[in-house]
Amino acid sequence: MTEITVRPLAQSDHADWQRLWTAYLTFYETKLPEDVYALTWERLFTAGEFEPKGFIATLDGNAVGLTHYLYHRSCWSQVNNCYLQDLFADPDVRGKGVGAALIEAVKQEAGKIGVKNVYWMTHETNTTARKLYDHVARRTGFIEYDLM
Questions:
Q1: CA distances from 128 to 89, 121, 136 (A)
Q2: Helices (H) and strands (E) in the chain, counts
């Protein structure tokens, strides 16, 4: 198997990022206006403790996955938590370790600044992703509620 490379997003990744994020949103039957794409891309490169960050995964030189994550404060800890907000691998590379490599990259990056809690959500029907998540993390049992 060819090696998966995970690295921080670069400005030169815009087209690949937009393609992958669009595919992720499509998977969740969601569309966002272009101004949200533009603002998100800008925020990914804005300095700041709580600004979102991102990684891109490549396989054979092709962008095949991405993740967005962000840090936030917690009333339960002196150090920040890390929320892995978006995770996507192209359908044709699923099962090849792309998702696991992206999760590990976020975990390692968070660990560099002392963050021990990296967490995320997925839809209960996302069985493919849940197989990975059940393998690399523990399920907390919490149920999400949303006012919007």
A1: 11, 14, 13
A2: 4, 5
- What is the pTM (predicted TM-score) of this model? 0.93
Name the DSSP letter for residue 51. S
CB–CB of 53/8 below 8 Å? yes
| Contacts with 113 (C-beta within 8 Å, 6 or more apart), sequence order | 71, 79, 80
Alpha helices in 78-140 (DSSP H): 98-112, 127-136
Encoded tokens for 87: 């995770």
Q: Are 126 and 91 in contact (CB under 8 A)?
A: no
Per-residue burial over 66-91, b if 16 or more Cβ lie within 10 Å, else e, is: bbbbbbeeeeeeeebbbbbebbbbbe
* Structure confidence by residue, pLDDT tens digits, 50-64: 999 999 999 999 999
